[in-house]
Amino acid sequence: MTVLEASHVGKRFHDPVNIEILKDISLSIQKGEFVSIIGKSGSGKSTLLYILSTMDTDYEGELRIGQEVMRGKSEKQLARVRNEKIGFVFQFHYLLTEFTALENVMLPGLKLGLYPEEVVRQRALEHLKGLDIEKLAGKKANQLSGGEKQRVAIARALINDPSVIMCDEPTGNLDKKNSLVVFNIFRQLTQEHHQTLLVVTHDEEFAGNTQRIIEMEDGRIIKQ
Amino acid sequence: MNIQLIFRIAGSLLMARWKQTLVAAAGVTFSITMFIALLSFMAGLNDLLDGIMLNRTAHVRIFNEIKPGIHQPVNSAPEYKGSYNFIRSVKSGSSRQEIYNSGAIMQALEKDSRVKGIAPKITAQVFFNDGAIDITGVINGINVQAENNLYHFSEYVPAGNPLDLLNVSNSIILGNGLAGKLTAGIGDVVQVTTVKQERFSLKVVGFYQSGVQELDKVQSFASIGTTQKILGKANDYITDIQVKLNDINQAPALAKEYSQLFQADAEDIQTANAQFETGSFVRTLISYLVGITLLIVAGFGIYNILNMMIYEKMDSIAILKAVGFSGTDVNRIFLVIALSIGLFGGMLGLLFGFLFSWVIGLIPFITAALPTVKTYPIDYNPVFYFIGCSFSIVTTYLAGWAPARKASRVDPVVIIRGK
């Protein structure tokens, strides 16, 4: 089953001269795949990820998530798509420091409003437990270490059972030991829960262990 | 669910920066406090000053002006119809100060639904005898009860009981200045000579103090019956009918109507005191302007703090948007923040404003002009609280509007990639 499909996606910046950052990118990701996108700095891999994540709407070509075409959707509808179908893990953790770890995980679930608050809480606790950090539930986000924050971010990405989790350099800011922990979590998610993962990274070792590698250079896919 | 969530996030953002929140709210509180206190105080003073005059002035005064007759007989004579008649030195000899048929007029007025009440009056010119010296003065014959109900007469009688005018025969209330000249105390008897050289002895039962010294030096009050007796007139002799209306704005129209209906002169309060309303209007305008300026300044404070908060919370806004909050949601979060600052600050402001004006109301304010006023006057008008409350919400909404819009337009990609 195709979870995400991009056909002939391109992007240009017009400031001050026309620069083509992405050229004719076509790719599709199947359910349960663990895909990594690698490439040098400036190869356009992050730009591609933000287009695929629906946050960047200024592109050419077509993007489908599930079977839905993303072009022409309002900002509100796209927000709904992100809430429902996409989970995010960023390089810089990005937790809301005003909330506890548990509340951070619950937030997208509460926004979706599919379950009552108590159920969302239970589910969030289960995810935290699955990632071995249930004892951190009551701590404020800024009291956590880097590795812990990233695990809370993963739990948050999982809360709405998204069809795909997108990660931008998830281990870029972590030491070796924590990188390994995060990678093992990802592998476990794909193997045991058939979770689809799309990871942008420049960590060759990390990418080498994923199922499928998409390599980019100068805005094109050169190998997949 | 969504709204509840928005309130929760807004609450957390507020509490995370509670010192800033408190400063912003304090700004609103301060301005609302000053707004309420200022307006209550100003309105209280205005009412007081208005009252000095309004309380004692009839809305419509019906009287008979002594003046030469407009219709001279020669003008009616058929043989002089076509000519222009010059008449010099016309005397107002046949004209009387008395209102004709006063009893019937008063009955008609009392039945009129637009009239709140009437108080008949007689003015008599007299001389007060102080040994060999005669002091000119005026005795106003009044109906004490009507005068009390309509014009708060007893508030201007700091010593003695006004009702004694009815209970004690041949009694008088002297103006403060007049009593000083006569060195008369309560219970003393003063001698009065009328214009027609008749002498009367009147017993002093109280003092009158209007606040206008010139008046207090000549004015005195007696019952209508006593005054009629002094003047040697029958008991239907009335020179003035003071009419108080339910709606003061009807006075000019009614004065015209009564003047035609009763064949007498009628003067309305607006014509008699034109300059008066202007002053009172300008004072009110100034206090509103100052109050609203305070609120606008507080609004800018909120605007600044929200703007700063948005720059600080860029990351949070980006992450909220990434995990599925729309621009509208973010907009609402910041509007809720602004409005809760306004509401919280505003409510405290109303409370402090009330306390502050209450404290002002305790400060002693003793003036010769207003014998019954002991402290500063305060008008606890609910309208001020209503205006203050709604204005605090409106200003904070406007102050929050631009920052909230800015927050809703934050592009998460720029923030997340920008690191």
Description:
The complex is a heterodimer of chains A (224) and B (419). Chain A has 224 residues and is of the alpha/beta class. Chain A has a single domain, classed as P-loop containing nucleotide triphosphate hydrolases (Rossmann fold, 3-Layer(aba) Sandwich). Chain A has 7 helices and 10 strands. Chain A has a 6-stranded mixed beta sheet. Chain A has a 4-stranded antiparallel beta sheet with strand order 2-1-4-5, with helices on one face. In chain A, helix 3 (101-112) runs parallel beside helix 5 (146-158). Chain A is globular and about 50 Å long. With 419 residues, chain B is an alpha+beta fold. Chain B folds into 2 domains: 2-54 and 276-418, no CATH class; 60-69 and 94-272, no CATH class. In chain B, strands 2-3-8-5-7-6 form a 6-stranded mixed barrel, surrounded by 4 helices. In chain B, strand 2 and strand 3 form a beta hairpin. In chain B, helix 13 (314-322) crosses helix 16 (412-418) and helix 14 packs antiparallel against helix 15 (382-408). The two termini of chain B are 33 Å apart. The mean pLDDT of chain B is 84.
Shape of chain A: globular
Low-confidence stretches of chain A: none
Total number of domains of chain B = 2
Alpha carbon gap, first and last residue of chain B = 33 Å
Number of helices of chain B: 16
Our count of domains of chain A comes out at 1
Q: H/E element string of chain B?
A: HHEHHEEHEHEHEEHEHEHEHHHHHH
Q: Write down the Rg of chain A.
A: 17 Å
Regions with little confidence, pLDDT below 50 for 5+ residues of chain B: none
